[in-house]
Every structure is written in C-alpha cells, then in structure tokens.
Amino acid sequence: MLKESLSGDGSPLYRSAYHLPSQGGKRMRPFLVARSCEIVGGKAESALPAAAAVEALHNFTLVHDDIMDNDLLRRGVPTVHTVWGTPMAILSGDLLFAKAFEILLTSGARSEPLRRSGEALAVATVRLSEGQSLDMSFEERDDVTEAEYLTMISGKTAALFEASAKIGAIIGSGDEESIRRLGEYGWNMGMAFQIFDDYLGLTSKEEVLGKSVGNDIREGKKTLVVIKALQTGLKRQLQPLLGNKNASDADLATLISLMKENGTLDFVRCKAQEYVDSAIDSLSTFPDTSAKRDLKELADYAIWRKK
Amino acid sequence: MLKESLSGDGSPLYRSAYHLPSQGGKRMRPFLVARSCEIVGGKAESALPAAAAVEALHNFTLVHDDIMDNDLLRRGVPTVHTVWGTPMAILSGDLLFAKAFEILLTSGARSEPLRRSGEALAVATVRLSEGQSLDMSFEERDDVTEAEYLTMISGKTAALFEASAKIGAIIGSGDEESIRRLGEYGWNMGMAFQIFDDYLGLTSKEEVLGKSVGNDIREGKKTLVVIKALQTGLKRQLQPLLGNKNASDADLATLISLMKENGTLDFVRCKAQEYVDSAIDSLSTFPDTSAKRDLKELADYAIWRKK
Question: Which of A86, A87, A133 has the CB atom closest to B13's CB atom?
Fold first, then answer.
C-alpha cells in the first residue's frame, strides 16, 4: 500500500521518499496496528491503510533524524540525504509525513475512528519532535539523568508504538478500556525496544546492524548504557570516546567489555525486560487469540532480536 | 490559538517553531478559511481551529523552504535555521506540521467535516512537496516553460489556498457545489498571489519586502518573470545574473528596468490579474454578504499589495 502511494512520477522526490521503505525494515509498527485491530475483534485488512500510514510516518522521522544526526547508513544502505542531498531529504520526509495522513484519512473507514486515529498520529508526532529535541539537547550535556533519558525515549520512540496500538484498536472498534490497555502495551513495548536498541548498538555487529557499532558513543548520544556507565565508575574510560567521531574501534571494544564486566550492560538489558513484562501484563485481560500470541511475541522480539 | 498551541515549555523547539508565527505575516490563509466558512453560512468562530491549523502548516513550509533555499531573511527577521541551526529548524518545521493536524482534528467539530478537512490539508501538503521539488529541479534548467512554471506554483502555492477555502466551506457545512467553487476561488487566488509575489520580488524594496530584492534571480529561480525575459530577448543580460549569488544590485537594477521597458513585467502583472478575475468569477453565485466582499477584496489584495 505504501508502495503504490509512493510510486508517484519517478521523480527524485518520490524515489527518495521510497528509498527507505523499499529496504523493508522491521515493520513492527504496522504489525502492531494490524494485530491490535484483530485483538479487539476487528479485521486486519481494515487496518491496512492505517498500518501503511504509521509506517510512512515512521519513515519520515527516520529520514529527518538521519539528517539531524548526520548518519550515513540505515538498513544497510546510504541514508536519503547522503544520496539525494539535504534539501531533497527534508522534502521527501515531508512528503512521507503528508502521505501518512492522506493514506489514513482517505482509507474509507468511518469518520470518527479516522478522525481519532489522525489525532493519535498527530499527537504522537508532536511527542516524537519533543523527544528528538531533548535527545539533541542531551548531546551537549554530561549530567543527563536516567529519568530524563526515559522522558526522552517516551517521546522519541514509545509515543509512536503507543499510537500504533491505539490506532489499531480504534479502527477495530475496540472499547475504551481496550484502547487504553493496548496503548499501554505499545508504550511499554516502545520503551523496551529503544532501551534494547541502544544496547544492541554496542553489542551487535555492523554487518547485522546495517550501521556502525558504537556510533551512539561517537556521536555523544546519552543512551541508558552511557548514563549507567558514567554512574558506575567508567567515566574515565568513556569520556575520551563520547562525542569523539574519531574514537577507534579498539578503544570502543575495550570500553564495551568493561561495561560487560561491571554489570552496566546487564542492568540495561534487565530494564528493557521490565518494560516488556509490563507490556505483556497489559494484554492480560484479552482472550487468548492468535493476535494476542503475536503481540506477546512482538514484545519478546523487541528485546531478543539481533538487529 | 496558534500561540497557545506553541507556547510549549520554553524549549528551543517551541521557541523556534513560534519564531515565524510571532512575526505575524499576512495571515491570508486563515482569513480565507474563516471567510469561506462564513460565505456558506457558517460561523467564523467555528473555523478558527482550522484557520490556525492552516497557518501552522503554512509556517512549517516556510521554515523548511528557507533551509532548502538557504534564505537568510523572512518577515524582516533572520530565518529559523539561521538562528537555531538546520537540525532544530527541520524539527521545528515538523512540529508545526504535526500541530496543524493536532489543532484541526481535536477542534471539536463533527467527525466527517474534520476528516475531510484533514484529507484536504494532507493532499495540499503532498502537492506542496511536489511543487517545491519541481521548483528545485528548475534551478538546474534553462528551458523551463511557462506551462511547467504554472504546474509548479499550482502545487507550491495554489494548493494550500485551495485547501484553505475548501476547508472553510467544509467546516461551515457548505454544499458540494459551494465547496467546489470556493476551492476554485482559492486556487486561482493562489496562482495570482504567487505570480505577483515573483513580480514583487523584483519591483519592491528590501525594507518593505523584508527580504532582498532580486533574490530570486541570484538564486536562479525560474519565475514567470525570468521565463518571459528569456523569451523576450533579455537572455544576454539575464544569463550572467541568474543563479549568481554575487550579482550586484546595480546590474539587477539595470535588468529590471529593461524588463519594464520591454513589457515583461506588464505581461506578468496581467497574468496575475487574469487569475484574480477567475477567482472573483468563482464567487458569482454566492449572495452578496460581507464575507463575499472580503473574499473579493482578498483577491484584489493578492495583486495590489506592496509586500
């Protein structure tokens, strides 16, 4: 559906907008929309436009984030601004954003679920922007707390997972309690996903990740791993590498094994597990269906994946 | 309404997003929303959220366009990326975009008019992106035709005027014919506005415009003035200045007076007038109310304004 919507006229605008979606990605958010629709008794097909809309919106944020962070690789291919330049990348992000609302609001579902889904998508995007802004402000600070980090990822990542689950439930005509519970599930799953993502960025391999290991440290990102490492006596080893674009792979590898030894990485992984547990708890009142099993698996996948 | 929605938390994100709206601007689009609501019998108050949404969306496009074109001044103040840097400017544009949909879809009007207004806003933004992309592609070309230029501004400018008028009529519960006619009015007015804007960019004064006279030529923009000048024997004089960031004010002044003499500027002004006439024609079936008089005046203002 996203493909048709972005087939356009073969212009650089449409080709650049379809660059990342054509690489696949994990498609967790559209999956979340479809299964959340099913778990409340709706048909997955009816949620497909909303699922495509959420994926378009997610890709819009990736394209713009890659410009802001000047990341060169994503999903194993050069980022949009690397290929088409920053002006076109800004514009193709904007197009993906607009397409998200176009796909959602013209999908032929009833007006009120569509209006409410659009509201959820817009609110999530406001929170995404706030989260990204916080994340950027952290780069200049050395005193970011765990609580501030959690606020940041609540906006930057969890808000769209929350909205995806809610939108699925709204389109599937779920009752208010189901919509609330699924939103809670999505939010917790998003928190777990992001914490584990930061963890993976240090413990996975470049050929698996599709981006460089330790990039977050080189960019001075204040991830939970970094915040914990600063608190647990690794400040002296971490400081020279944090925000240092030229930090060597060897120095990063040494730091990472110190983080393993002193329990920093275990702490972070456990934190992600706690959020997954909360996510799964939020599903407890739903009957045992294949949609529920899929959502449980998705939550586990969020912290057991390799990339 | 836009002010409250952007009051935020005093962070750079919200301050940068409110930077341009706080400078006022012409506010033509929200005016268009309100009067189009009234002309079909609706109350202007009921259209205020939609009017604020359209203005937020317009400001989002300005912030991003200024980055893409690297413009330094807007509304007499430094552009957002000049003050806050490109990453924050990208993000504050995104926030304005998201706020537009949030304001619109939470405004408390009935679901179907809101869904449809959201659709109109999304479709207009897709067309805006296409128009901006065309405009950027024109910069590398010397053979842009008048027809291509008109297609470009139809997306870049007229689409949002069209959507604004339609949205007003939708919120005001206008019938299909009224919505169609007001859309036509808005589109024609937008065409006139942009053509006249390009004209003003060469014939006004910097202190009135709030930006440099002749900027479009220095940036190599293929405006209707430039396209006509190339066709009417001014190629030799225009070519060395087109896309030349260092073109002198004196050389530009000489070129502009040649354009006056050989009728290029008159041609462009007449073209704008034609669109204004069509815009006013589209209003013919509406009864004579103060809203109708305002919309007629707005169309005239589009081509008689000083900035």
Answer: A133
Tokens of B35: 């009067």
* ipTM for the whole complex: 0.93
CATH code for the structural domain at A2-304: 1.10.600.10
Based on its alpha-carbon atoms, the radius of gyration of chain B, rounded to whole angstroms, reads 19
CA-based max dimension of chain B: 58
Question: Which CATH code for domain B25-304?
Answer: 1.10.600.10
Q: Is A97 on the interface with B (CB under 8 A)?
A: yes
Name the average pLDDT for chain A.
93
CB B30 within 8 A of CB B47: no
A74 DSSP β-pair partners: A77
A151/B contact by beta carbon, under 8 A: no
| Contact assignment for B99 to A121 by CB distance below 8 Å | no
What mean pLDDT is predicted for residues B115-132?
A: 97
Confidence (pLDDT) at B26: 85
Specify whether the CB–CB gap between A251 and A275 falls below 8 A: no
> Is the full-model pTM beyond 0.90?
yes
How far is the first Cα of chain A from the last one, in angstroms, to the nearest whole number?
Answer: 25
Max CA separation in chain A (angstroms) = 58
| Nearest alpha-carbon partner for A106 in A53, A37, A168 | A53
